[in-house]
Amino acid sequence: VDPDGDTLTFGVREQIGHEILRIESIGVNEANVYLKKELDREVHDEYALVLTLTDGHLGDGNFITQSLLLLVEDVNDNEPIFKPYQSSLVVREDSGPGILTTVEATDSDEGPYGQVVYSLQELDGETDLFSVSTVNGKGVIRLVGHLDYERKFLYQLRVLAVDRSNNERINTATAAILVKVQDVEDQPPEFVVVSPVTRVSEDAAIGTSVLQVRAVDGDRGVNNRILYSVTKGGEGVFDIDAHSGFLYTTTKLDRES
């Protein structure tokens, strides 16, 4: 209040940050202070401003001043961002439970809004094989089950990073990790097609091919060479080419004997 009843003029001293405020007089001795632009705590978390006041009789450049410290409160307006991570892993199918890799996401917000927790999005019901836990702000991905290359050899994991908002919007980010299972030798060969009965003439020449068998490695990712042999029932009469799988006669046949 001016004792002389003069109209007061309110203002803001020109300095860093003054452009965010607008002062509008609403009477001879009152003014409202408005924000002129949107604030961003991650850019400036506080503004030290100086308000000015004059009645027009103090002389040019003379003002009464009042310091104003404007503190910007944080809101949950930033999403977590994953740091560079290993997006593809190769894991042996005989690997035991243990840590596979670690991911980390950061959030520019303050306090709980900037704290990130991790979870594993369920994909094809495979969450019983893998898990993720939050340890010191990082997501630790573990193998918790037993892999089987012959059942499935590729897993697409999605790690979800979520900030700790309680009553505002929740911000999330997702990291995709491809797990490739490396086959190990744990399966026997498998015959593909074998005729249970075949016929051969008793006057067939020695070395006549009777049939061909074919087998594949039970370990699909290893694909070792298959070798064939006759283990029972053909002694002195039949033999098999170890590489081609052709069964052939080794002597003259006699149906009556």
Automatic annotation (TrEMBL):
Please provide, alphabetically and separated by semicolons, the GO molecular function terms listed in this UniProt record. calcium ion binding
Q: Major location, coarse class?
A: membrane
UniProt membrane topology term: Single-pass type I membrane protein
Taken from the UniProt entry, a GO cellular component term is: plasma membrane
Q: Where is the protein situated, by its record's location annotation?
A: Cell membrane
- Keyword Repeat on this protein? yes
The Cadherin domain sits at 1-82, 83-191, 200-256
**One Pfam family from the record:** Cadherin
Transferase recorded as keyword: no
InterPro entries tied to this protein? Cadherin-domain_protein, Cadherin-like_dom, Cadherin-like_sf, Cadherin_CS
Provide this UniProt record's keywords sorted from A to Z: Calcium, Cell adhesion, Membrane, Repeat, Signal, Transmembrane, Transmembrane helix
Q: Which domain of life is it from?
A: Eukaryota
An example GO biological process term is: establishment or maintenance of cell polarity
- Protein name as catalogued: Cadherin domain-containing protein
Q: Native species of this protein?
A: Graphocephala atropunctata
